[in-house]
């Protein structure tokens, strides 16, 4: 830009409007309008550029659109304006939350000092690109085990309090509450509202999740939204939200969209519900169904008890009809008679055995006495022992003068040998 150099009066400071911003000083400041003109002249040299981002604001005034685009990775934003003439050439379905690419040219308004970008073209980012990014994220999270069925927690049969994260005054909230209360009228909810699309969706949903997860009364958390196109559901495939759900200690139910909508939250959550209505059916039991089950169990129990009692009564009657139970004394009398006969027989056998053994003992005693040395000595025989106790069986064993002990039928006597006596020399007599 060519520097404007007006005529100046020597010795006087130049007028403020004549000073270029680069030449300004405390003594010679430039004016705001000249600064803004300089900035605008610099910005007008910029050309158009294509940018990619998410529409976070879309305000229509007089046919023109004033909005903002956000960078999904850094949260940096720019403001843009879309004139009505340009808007007529664009798609009619552009809205907050859409991921788009836009051809923009910088524009600066000297009067207000506002900086914005004029949009000359805008269109949705190809769905294929988005699906490719989501697929890469899906592969990475699956490799980390966030989709593993083993880590998913079982929902409680009847939660104390159901935590609900949804848009304020949304149809999803009405569907969840109405259907849950129809199934279990005493169900209690603790609702945390959050934006369900746009740039506030992820941070607000994470904040609501952390608040409900920290509540000790909340036993299950439902994240509900009433469906939408893939662009508006991108927040529920955001990695930050997915990791927050995986780290939660409370079971989480994903109820985003309709049957064909599958954000990554469905894979990370402990349970996927196809719709908010389906989520209500999953988190609380049906009181009518439970009453029917209780009635069925009561009927089966009554039938089983009746059958058991009837069977036991029949068995008891069968036992009572047996002869032993009809006349217990008769069985005892019969057994007593048998016992008496056995005792008598035993006594008889023992008596006969005793007599036989007594006779045998007497016979053995007589035989023993007949063979006993004492019986022999009683008949007049004697046994001579030497001093060392050896029995004399040969006369040569007792030479003359040997001391002998002679045992007779009653006692023993001492004797001295006079030597061997020749046969025929012995005294004859009784001994």
TrEMBL record:
Residues 146-340 form the Exonuclease VII large subunit C-terminal domain. Its main location: cytoplasm. It comes from Microbacterium lemovicicum. It catalyses: Exonucleolytic cleavage in either 5'- to 3'- or 3'- to 5'-direction to yield nucleoside 5'-phosphates. Residues 1-10 have a biased composition (Low complexity). GO terms for biological process: DNA catabolic process. Bidirectionally degrades single-stranded DNA into large acid-insoluble oligonucleotides, which are then degraded further into small acid-soluble oligonucleotides. This is Exodeoxyribonuclease 7 large subunit. InterPro entries: Exonuc_VII_L, Exonuc_VII_lsu_C, OB-fold_nuc-bd_dom. It is an enzyme of class 3 (hydrolase). Its EC number is 3.1.11.6. Keywords: Cytoplasm, Exonuclease, Hydrolase, Nuclease. Belongs to the XseA family. It comes from the Bacteria. Residues 31-123 form the OB-fold nucleic acid binding domain. It is found in: Cytoplasm. Heterooligomer composed of large and small subunits. The keyword Metal-binding does not apply. The gene is xseA. GO terms for molecular function: exodeoxyribonuclease VII activity; nucleic acid binding. Residues 1-33 are annotated as: Disordered. GO terms for cellular component: cytoplasm; exodeoxyribonuclease VII complex.
